[in-house]
Amino acid sequence: MAVTVRIPTPLRKLTDNRSEIEIDGETVESLIGNMEASYPGIKDRLCDESGKVRRFINIYINEEDIRFLDGTDTTIKAGDRISIVPAIAGGQDDPHGSGSPRDRG
């Protein structure tokens, strides 16, 4: 059964610039495998060498983080919406929010 997978902008070069794809999968693990078969190279961006989802990649099923479900063993049902969301790092170094170098001391 196919489900809709939302693809983040940094990975769209691997999906022919598609923001959403339809892929079969009974679990998140099989879904990622099927994505790799259709879009070579995407699994390496999502998973480490051991097959675990990379720390900076979040995968959601119907807005629920798979880390709080069964990880890559989480079952997927018809109609589920899968979102791949890369973590974003950054922000201000100054805890007081000052943007001026002279205010930093």
Structure write-up:
15% of the residues lie in helices and 22% in strands. By secondary structure, the chain is α+β, with helices and mostly antiparallel strands. The chain has a single domain, classed as Beta-grasp domain (Ubiquitin-like (UB roll), Roll), CATH 3.10.20. A five-stranded mixed sheet has the order 2-1-5-3-4, with helices on one face. The protein is globular, with a radius of gyration of 17 Å. It starts with a strand and ends in a 19-residue tail after the last strand. The mean pLDDT is 88.
**Gross morphology:** globular
Per the CATH scheme, the topology name is: Ubiquitin-like (UB roll)
Element pattern in H and E: EEHHEEE
CATH class equals Alpha Beta
DSSP E strands, number: 5
**In total, how many domains does the architecture comprise?**
1
Rg calc: 17 Å
Distance between the termini: 59 Å
Strand numbers in spatial order across the main sheet: 2-1-5-3-4
**What's the name of the CATH homologous superfamily?**
Beta-grasp domain
Give the strand content: 15-25%
Write the layout of secondary structure elements.
Layout: E1 2-6, E2 20-24, H1 28-38, H2 42-46, E3 57-61, E4 64-65, E5 81-86
Parallel strand pairs: 1-5
Antiparallel strand pairs: 1-2, 3-4, 3-5
